[in-house]
Amino acid sequence: MSGQEKTIIKNEEWMCAKCGVSLVPKNTIFAYMGMTFSHEVLRCPSCGMAFISKELADGKMAEVEQLMEDK
C-alpha cells in the first residue's frame, strides 16, 4: 500500500484511484509492534490497497496503538 496513491469517490462509491474499480469490504489484518489485530476495511479487489478512514485511524487504530505501546 503506497501513501502516494489516493482513493477517489465516483458516483458516491469508493473507487481505487490506481485500478478504477470499486472498493469492497474485507477483513484485514494489521500488524504493529509485533502484535496483530483485524478490522473490516474497504479494499481494492485488484491491487489490494486498503482505505483507512480518518475515523478508524483516530479511533480504533489509535486505541490499539496506545495499548500496545503501554505494554
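The above is record 1. Record 2 follows with the same two-line structure.
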Amino acid sequence: MSDQAPEPEDLRALGDRIDALRRQEQPPAKSSVPTSGEVAIRFATELVSAVIVGAAIGWGLDWLFGTRPFLTIALFLLGAAAGIRNVIVASREINRRIAAAEDKEP
C-alpha cells in the first residue's frame, strides 16, 4: 500500500461516478397519480381499520367494566364515523395529487 493520501479531485470524480451509477440502477419514479386499485385499497383500509379499532376498544372496555354490549356498540359506531371521515380526508388528498399531476403534464 502506498502512504499517499488520495487527491480531493480524485475522490470527487469517484463520488460522481458512483452517483451516476446509482441513478442508473434506481427504478423509474412512480407516477403520482394513483390507480383505481390503489384508491380502493386505501379507502377500504381507512374504513375497516377504524371500525376494527373502535370495536376492539369498545369490547376491551366492556370486558373491563362489565357493561356488555353497550361500549362495544357505541365505539363501533364511533369507529365507523371516524372511518368515514378518514375516507373523506383521503379522497381530498388523492384529488389534490391528481390535480397536481394534471398541472404538471403539458
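The helical segments are 8-25, 36-65, 70-104.
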